[in-house]
UniProtKB/TrEMBL annotation:
UniProt feature, compositional bias: Basic and acidic residues: 53-64
One GO MF term attached to the UniProt entry: ligase activity
Gene3D superfamilies assigned: Cyclic phosphodiesterase
UniProt protein name: RNA 2',3'-cyclic phosphodiesterase
Organism: Halorubrum vacuolatum
Function: Hydrolyzes RNA 2',3'-cyclic phosphodiester to an RNA 2'-phosphomonoester.
Claim: Ion transport is one of the keywords in the record: no
Residue stretches in coiled coil: none
Placement of sequence motif HXTX 1: 39-42
Region (Disordered) residue spans: 46-67
Keywords: Hydrolase, Ligase
Family designation: Belongs to the 2H phosphoesterase superfamily. ThpR family.
Ranges spanned by the short sequence motif HXTX 2, renumbered to the chain: 145-148
Catalytic function, reaction form: a 3'-end 2',3'-cyclophospho-ribonucleotide-RNA + H2O = a 3'-end 2'-phospho-ribonucleotide-RNA + H(+)
Length: 201
Protein backbone atom coordinates (compact mmCIF):
# COMPACT_ATOMS: atom_id res chain seq x y z
CA UNK A 1 0.00 0.00 0.00
CA UNK A 2 1.02 3.61 -0.54
CA UNK A 3 1.38 5.26 2.84
CA UNK A 4 2.47 8.42 4.61
CA UNK A 5 2.55 10.04 8.05
CA UNK A 6 0.39 13.14 8.51
CA UNK A 7 -1.53 15.41 10.84
CA UNK A 8 -5.18 15.45 9.83
CA UNK A 9 -7.11 18.71 9.89
CA UNK A 10 -10.32 18.59 11.94
CA UNK A 11 -13.77 18.63 10.34
CA UNK A 12 -14.31 22.08 11.85
CA UNK A 13 -11.94 23.53 9.22
CA UNK A 14 -13.51 21.79 6.21
CA UNK A 15 -15.72 24.74 5.26
CA UNK A 16 -12.82 27.18 5.62
CA UNK A 17 -10.64 25.03 3.35
CA UNK A 18 -13.44 24.96 0.77
CA UNK A 19 -13.80 28.76 1.04
CA UNK A 20 -10.06 29.19 0.45
CA UNK A 21 -10.35 27.01 -2.65
CA UNK A 22 -13.23 29.09 -4.01
CA UNK A 23 -11.24 31.90 -5.70
CA UNK A 24 -8.90 29.34 -7.25
CA UNK A 25 -11.61 27.32 -8.96
CA UNK A 26 -12.05 30.00 -11.63
CA UNK A 27 -8.60 29.10 -12.99
CA UNK A 28 -8.47 26.73 -15.95
CA UNK A 29 -6.61 23.50 -15.37
CA UNK A 30 -6.91 23.48 -11.58
CA UNK A 31 -8.12 20.56 -9.46
CA UNK A 32 -9.13 21.37 -5.87
CA UNK A 33 -8.53 18.57 -3.37
CA UNK A 34 -11.36 17.16 -1.26
CA UNK A 35 -11.53 19.53 1.75
CA UNK A 36 -12.64 16.64 3.95
CA UNK A 37 -9.31 14.92 3.35
CA UNK A 38 -7.14 17.96 4.12
CA UNK A 39 -3.96 17.09 6.01
CA UNK A 40 -0.37 18.10 6.73
CA UNK A 41 1.98 15.48 5.29
CA UNK A 42 4.94 14.84 7.57
CA UNK A 43 6.66 12.01 5.69
CA UNK A 44 5.72 10.21 2.45
CA UNK A 45 6.77 6.57 2.54
CA UNK A 46 5.80 5.22 -0.87
CA UNK A 47 4.94 1.53 -0.99
CA UNK A 48 4.75 -0.36 2.31
CA UNK A 49 4.34 -4.13 2.49
CA UNK A 50 1.18 -4.68 4.51
CA UNK A 51 1.01 -8.38 3.65
CA UNK A 52 -1.82 -7.81 1.19
CA UNK A 53 0.09 -7.00 -2.00
CA UNK A 54 -0.67 -9.88 -4.36
CA UNK A 55 -0.29 -8.29 -7.77
CA UNK A 56 2.73 -6.94 -9.59
CA UNK A 57 4.03 -3.49 -8.78
CA UNK A 58 2.32 -0.92 -11.00
CA UNK A 59 5.21 1.52 -10.81
CA UNK A 60 2.91 4.34 -9.71
CA UNK A 61 4.75 5.48 -6.62
CA UNK A 62 7.76 7.44 -5.52
CA UNK A 63 9.12 5.21 -2.76
CA UNK A 64 10.69 1.78 -2.38
CA UNK A 65 9.09 -1.26 -4.01
CA UNK A 66 7.23 -2.43 -0.92
CA UNK A 67 10.41 -3.72 0.70
CA UNK A 68 9.58 -1.94 3.98
CA UNK A 69 7.16 -3.83 6.18
CA UNK A 70 4.18 -2.29 7.92
CA UNK A 71 5.45 -3.58 11.27
CA UNK A 72 8.75 -1.76 10.73
CA UNK A 73 6.92 1.44 9.79
CA UNK A 74 4.69 1.28 12.88
CA UNK A 75 7.71 0.78 15.11
CA UNK A 76 9.51 3.67 13.40
CA UNK A 77 6.48 5.88 13.98
CA UNK A 78 6.48 5.08 17.70
CA UNK A 79 10.19 5.79 17.97
CA UNK A 80 9.84 9.04 16.04
CA UNK A 81 7.11 10.39 18.33
CA UNK A 82 9.26 9.56 21.36
CA UNK A 83 12.36 11.03 19.70
CA UNK A 84 10.62 14.31 18.79
CA UNK A 85 9.24 14.74 22.32
CA UNK A 86 6.52 17.06 21.03
CA UNK A 87 3.47 17.64 23.24
CA UNK A 88 0.05 18.56 21.78
CA UNK A 89 0.37 21.98 20.14
CA UNK A 90 -1.66 24.66 18.39
CA UNK A 91 -1.62 24.99 14.60
CA UNK A 92 -2.85 28.01 12.68
CA UNK A 93 -3.56 27.61 8.96
CA UNK A 94 -3.47 30.85 7.01
CA UNK A 95 -2.59 32.27 3.60
CA UNK A 96 -1.56 30.75 0.26
CA UNK A 97 1.64 29.35 -1.14
CA UNK A 98 2.67 27.34 -4.20
CA UNK A 99 5.14 24.67 -5.27
CA UNK A 100 7.59 24.80 -6.88
CA UNK A 101 7.34 28.54 -7.78
CA UNK A 102 4.91 31.21 -8.95
CA UNK A 103 6.33 30.90 -12.46
CA UNK A 104 5.64 27.17 -12.60
CA UNK A 105 2.76 26.19 -10.31
CA UNK A 106 1.97 22.54 -9.72
CA UNK A 107 0.52 22.73 -6.19
CA UNK A 108 -1.37 25.46 -4.31
CA UNK A 109 -1.27 25.17 -0.55
CA UNK A 110 -2.40 26.84 2.65
CA UNK A 111 0.43 27.88 4.97
CA UNK A 112 1.14 27.16 8.61
CA UNK A 113 1.51 30.36 10.62
CA UNK A 114 1.69 28.68 14.03
CA UNK A 115 2.95 25.20 14.87
CA UNK A 116 5.57 25.01 12.14
CA UNK A 117 8.42 24.36 14.60
CA UNK A 118 6.68 21.37 16.15
CA UNK A 119 5.70 19.98 12.74
CA UNK A 120 9.30 20.29 11.59
CA UNK A 121 10.55 18.45 14.68
CA UNK A 122 8.09 15.62 13.99
CA UNK A 123 9.13 15.50 10.34
CA UNK A 124 12.82 15.34 11.21
CA UNK A 125 12.25 12.53 13.70
CA UNK A 126 10.14 10.59 11.18
CA UNK A 127 12.76 11.19 8.49
CA UNK A 128 15.50 9.79 10.71
CA UNK A 129 13.56 6.75 11.86
CA UNK A 130 12.07 5.80 8.49
CA UNK A 131 15.25 6.21 6.46
CA UNK A 132 16.91 3.93 9.02
CA UNK A 133 14.52 1.13 7.97
CA UNK A 134 15.02 1.69 4.25
CA UNK A 135 12.55 4.41 3.22
CA UNK A 136 13.90 6.87 0.65
CA UNK A 137 15.20 10.14 2.09
CA UNK A 138 13.47 13.39 1.15
CA UNK A 139 15.06 15.27 -1.73
CA UNK A 140 13.72 18.72 -0.79
CA UNK A 141 13.41 20.87 2.31
CA UNK A 142 10.35 20.35 4.49
CA UNK A 143 7.75 23.12 4.29
CA UNK A 144 4.71 22.57 6.55
CA UNK A 145 1.61 23.07 4.39
CA UNK A 146 -1.87 21.85 3.52
CA UNK A 147 -2.34 21.09 -0.17
CA UNK A 148 -5.61 22.59 -1.37
CA UNK A 149 -5.33 22.31 -5.18
CA UNK A 150 -3.17 20.94 -7.98
CA UNK A 151 -2.67 22.40 -11.46
CA UNK A 152 -2.80 20.12 -14.50
CA UNK A 153 -1.29 22.76 -16.80
CA UNK A 154 -0.43 26.45 -16.98
CA UNK A 155 -3.61 27.84 -18.53
CA UNK A 156 -4.81 29.35 -15.26
CA UNK A 157 -1.42 30.41 -13.93
CA UNK A 158 -2.02 34.17 -14.08
CA UNK A 159 -5.34 33.86 -12.24
CA UNK A 160 -3.74 31.76 -9.50
CA UNK A 161 -0.86 34.24 -9.23
CA UNK A 162 -3.33 37.09 -8.66
CA UNK A 163 -5.23 35.14 -6.00
CA UNK A 164 -2.04 34.24 -4.16
CA UNK A 165 -0.79 37.86 -4.27
CA UNK A 166 -4.08 39.54 -3.35
CA UNK A 167 -5.68 37.24 -0.79
CA UNK A 168 -4.66 35.75 2.52
CA UNK A 169 -7.43 33.46 3.79
CA UNK A 170 -7.73 32.79 7.50
CA UNK A 171 -8.54 29.08 7.64
CA UNK A 172 -8.34 28.61 11.38
CA UNK A 173 -6.62 27.10 14.39
CA UNK A 174 -6.71 23.62 15.85
CA UNK A 175 -4.82 21.51 18.37
CA UNK A 176 -2.60 18.81 16.95
CA UNK A 177 -2.55 15.99 19.50
CA UNK A 178 -1.70 13.01 17.28
CA UNK A 179 -0.12 11.97 14.02
CA UNK A 180 -1.52 9.29 11.75
CA UNK A 181 -0.21 6.71 9.37
CA UNK A 182 -2.53 6.94 6.37
CA UNK A 183 -2.89 4.73 3.31
CA UNK A 184 -3.51 6.37 -0.06
CA UNK A 185 -5.42 4.61 -2.82
CA UNK A 186 -5.42 6.35 -6.20
CA UNK A 187 -8.87 6.51 -7.84
CA UNK A 188 -10.28 8.33 -10.89
CA UNK A 189 -11.89 10.80 -8.47
CA UNK A 190 -8.67 11.47 -6.61
CA UNK A 191 -6.80 9.76 -3.78
CA UNK A 192 -8.74 7.96 -1.05
CA UNK A 193 -7.14 8.19 2.39
CA UNK A 194 -7.70 5.64 5.15
CA UNK A 195 -6.19 5.67 8.67
CA UNK A 196 -3.89 2.75 9.46
CA UNK A 197 -2.56 3.74 12.88
CA UNK A 198 -2.73 6.68 15.29
CA UNK A 199 0.22 7.88 17.40
CA UNK A 200 -0.69 10.14 20.32
CA UNK A 201 1.64 13.03 21.15
Amino acid sequence: MRAFFAVDLPESLTDAIAAAQGPLTEAAGIDPVDPEGAHLTLKFLGEVDDGDHDGPDDGDHDGPDADVSLDDVLAAGERAVERAGVDPFACRVRGYGVFPSLEYISVVWAGIEEGGEELTELHEALEAETTAIGVDAETHAFTPHVTIARMRDGRGKEHVQRVVHEREPEIGRFEANEIRLLSSTLTPDGPLYEPVEVFDL
